[in-house]
């Protein structure tokens, strides 16, 4: 997938400054984030012509992943917020008398309060160069960033499909697969390089979990290696840092879409290995599956029976309405107190299984969240979650690749000045880009951040508080260093949001060896630093000095090497009618929401696609070469050499297109 990013940039961006697009397209996109990418892939797959442009110089928008140097460039860009000037000042001459202009934003205002901190010696990295960095491409267009802010400099995995890699592996060489991962028959395929792996296919097979390098599972009795800031800079290409932190539910809408559309062939995934809880100032592991519950030493035998009985009830709670009918108007936390559960069990269920608010979540919402968690267990592993290798930013690129394979055109660093609206019909007819080129289309999909203040004047946005840390140890040490963990830290005060913490190890291909990448997320009440720093101080050691005055308890905590805080706009759930003067054929896609999963983006993408093309199937699987049937007339005409036109030739298979593209 990282190689695909580089290929796309060279195919569509190398001469972006000279780009002349088709004067007409069926669909035109602004922004390359997840919902737009899914819609673009669905439209291209159904035979529509797609032009997909973005003023940014990287894929994914606010769903993107960056190398460490790329993230530093992104931080600098968002702290400076430099003005963008028009390259073509006479574009208004292209507007006809019966047309009006709907201007678009030239600056991204979705990121605020960016604060970065280095807890090491920054001076030591002054003359350090990033290992293996490629020369920066020149910047064209109206993007304010200098250089390539994303990571064409990532390590490129082999270009063969994950299925082919899995078939070529020897099962003996792979690590043992947890029994829970085989709960659905032959879901599991063994992948190379000493790591259990799964491959998503159109059946019930799972996403390719793992081509990641295996790490030795040793008990680290020694102190962790001291990581210097200069090492982080030098190994910056090994980091893939997500702007938005999410996991994929193994039975969620995104996994189902990846399987159905066969887009899963472009990505690999790793199981989240453990669910953690923060209780009484300590981090501990939560038993989730039946095996975990009965093997747990944290719970007494009575508590184990209580927990299993309640979880069994949650799986089919709708069949027993008499047990929760009286508590429909109560919170889920109040309902748990009536179930004769111990305080520790209530804490585990509320914060680590249902993962809901103690004050705002109703009983029905809590039961639904608990059932969703339980239904996702055992499909691909002992937890309900999967994480894409190389970061969440790979997912939008997977759908961009599918769109490109079926004829979609992509161009980054290419901004759009305005939408051209017909006064009589009220429909958008075209866009004008920053080179003054007018491009017509039938439908326009625009990311919310591109809309001007006049269009969004009645919109009330929420905010997400985000923090990203690079640490030297896990929050909970175990025999294995290669753990993907999710932890919910409950709020200190009632009414405040809980903080979701996702800790990634180096085998996820998101950080260098001997470090961990930690993401913290919660709905905003203040700035990101004010919301999240108290949680960081509870879990991590921030002081760079390790003198005698530092308590032993602090020294046992993981040490933060580097951190960044920022607030991100949450534009999800906004009604279309909230936007002023929006043409009927212009559709708005939201940015990331604060939820753990990706269901909101998938639902939005499918809804918009069905509004545009109600008779078309949403993201059908591409045809296999062996399934293509040629009629006798086509065969005869091809053999006689009478038909050489593209219209009468059978469409190449996705595999053939991919091979030509690569």
Automatic annotation (TrEMBL):
Cell compartments where the protein resides: Cytoplasm, Cytosol
Segments forming domain RAE1/2: 464-594
GO terms for biological process, alphabetical: intracellular protein transport; small GTPase-mediated signal transduction; vesicle-mediated transport
Amino acid composition bias (Acidic residues), ranges on this chain: 628-637
Gene3D superfamilies, A to Z: FAD/NAD(P)-binding domain (3.50.50.60), Guanine Nucleotide Dissociation Inhibitor, domain 1 (1.10.405.10), Guanine Nucleotide Dissociation Inhibitor, domain 2 (3.30.519.10)
UniProt GO cellular component terms: cytosol; nucleus; Rab-protein geranylgeranyltransferase complex
Bias-annotated ranges (Basic and acidic residues): 648-662
Keywords: Cytoplasm, GTPase activation
Biological role: Substrate-binding subunit (component A) of the Rab geranylgeranyltransferase (GGTase) complex. Binds unprenylated Rab proteins and presents the substrate peptide to the catalytic component B. The component A is thought to be regenerated by transferring its prenylated Rab back to the donor membrane.
Protein name: Rab proteins geranylgeranyltransferase component A
């Amino acid at each position: 997938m990282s190689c695909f990013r580089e290929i796309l940039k060279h195919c569509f961006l190398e001469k972006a400054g000279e780009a002349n697009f088709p004067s007409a397209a069926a669909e035109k996109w602004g922004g390359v984030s997840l919902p737009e990418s899914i819609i673009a892939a669905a439209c291209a797959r159904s035979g529509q012509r797609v032009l997909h442009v973005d003023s940014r110089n990287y894929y994914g928008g606010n769903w993107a992943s960056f190398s460490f140097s790329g993230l530093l460039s992104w931080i600098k860009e968002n702290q400076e917020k430099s003005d963008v000037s028009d390259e073509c000042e006479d574009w208004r001459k292209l507007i006809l008398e019966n047309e009006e202009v709907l201007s678009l934003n030239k600056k991204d205002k979705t990121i605020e309060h960016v604060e970065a901190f280095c807890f090491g010696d920054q001076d030591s990295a002054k003359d350090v160069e990033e290992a293996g960095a490629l020369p920066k491409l020149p910047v064209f267009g109206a993007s304010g960033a200098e250089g390539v802010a994303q990571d064409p400099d990532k390590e490129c995995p082999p270009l063969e499909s994950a299925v082919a890699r899995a078939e070529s592996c020897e099962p003996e060489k792979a690590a043992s697969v947890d029994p829970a991962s085989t709960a659905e028959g032959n879901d599991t395929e063994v992948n190379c390089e000493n790591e259990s792996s799964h491959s998503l296919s159109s059946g019930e097979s799972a996403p390719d979990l793992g081509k990641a390098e295996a790490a030795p599972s040793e008990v680290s009795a020694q102190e962790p290696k001291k990581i210097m800031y200069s090492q982080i800079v030098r190994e910056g290409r090994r980091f893939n840092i997500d702007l938005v932190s999410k996991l994929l539910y193994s039975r969620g809408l995104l996994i189902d879409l990846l399987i159905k559309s066969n887009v899963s062939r472009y990505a690999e995934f790793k199981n989240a290995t453990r669910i953690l809880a923060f209780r009484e100032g300590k981090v501990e592991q939560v038993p989730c599956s039946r095996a975990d519950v009965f093997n747990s030493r944290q719970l007494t035998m009575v508590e184990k029976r209580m927990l299993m009985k309640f979880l069994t009830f949650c799986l089919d709670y709708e069949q027993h309405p008499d047990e929760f009918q009286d508590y429909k108007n109560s919170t889920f936390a109040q309902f748990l107190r009536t179930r004769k559960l111990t305080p520790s069990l209530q804490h585990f269920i509320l914060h680590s299984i249902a993962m809901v608010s103690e004050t705002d979540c109703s009983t029905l919402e809590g039961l639904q969240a608990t059932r969703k968690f339980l239904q996702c267990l055992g499909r691909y592993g002992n937890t309900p979650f999967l994480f894409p290798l190389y970061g969440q930013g790979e997912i939008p690129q997977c759908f961009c690749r599918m769109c490109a394979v079926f004829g979609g055109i992509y161009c980054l660093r290419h901004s759009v000045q305005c939408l051209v609206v017909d006064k009589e019909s009220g429909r958008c007819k075209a866009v004008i880009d920053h080179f003054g080129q007018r491009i017509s289309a039938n439908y326009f999909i625009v990311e919310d951040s591109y809309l001007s203040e006049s269009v969004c004047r009645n919109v009330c946005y929420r905010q997400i508080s985000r923090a990203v840390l690079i640490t030297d140890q896990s929050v909970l040490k175990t025999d294995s260093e290669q753990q993907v963990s999710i932890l919910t830290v409950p709020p200190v005060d009632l009414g405040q949001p809980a903080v979701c913490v996702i800790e990634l190890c180096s085998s996820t291909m998101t950080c260098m060896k001997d470090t961990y990448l930690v993401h913290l997320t919660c709905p905003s009440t203040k700035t990101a630093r004010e919301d999240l720093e108290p949680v960081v101080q509870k879990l991590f050691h921030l002081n760079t000095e390790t003198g005698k005055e530092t308590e032993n308890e602090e020294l046992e905590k993981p040490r933060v090497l580097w951190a960044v805080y920022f607030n991100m706009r949450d534009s999800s759930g906004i009604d279309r009618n909230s936007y002023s003067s929006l043409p009927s054929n212009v559709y708005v896609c939201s940015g990331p929401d604060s939820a753990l999963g990706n269901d909101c983006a998938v639902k939005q993408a499918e809804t918009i696609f069905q509004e545009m093309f109600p008779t078309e199937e949403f993201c059908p699987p591409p045809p296999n070469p062996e399934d293509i049937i040629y009629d006798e007339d086509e065969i005869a005409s091809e053999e006689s050499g009478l038909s050489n036109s593209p219209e009468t030739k059978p469409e190449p298979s996705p595999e053939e297109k991919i091979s030509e593209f690569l």
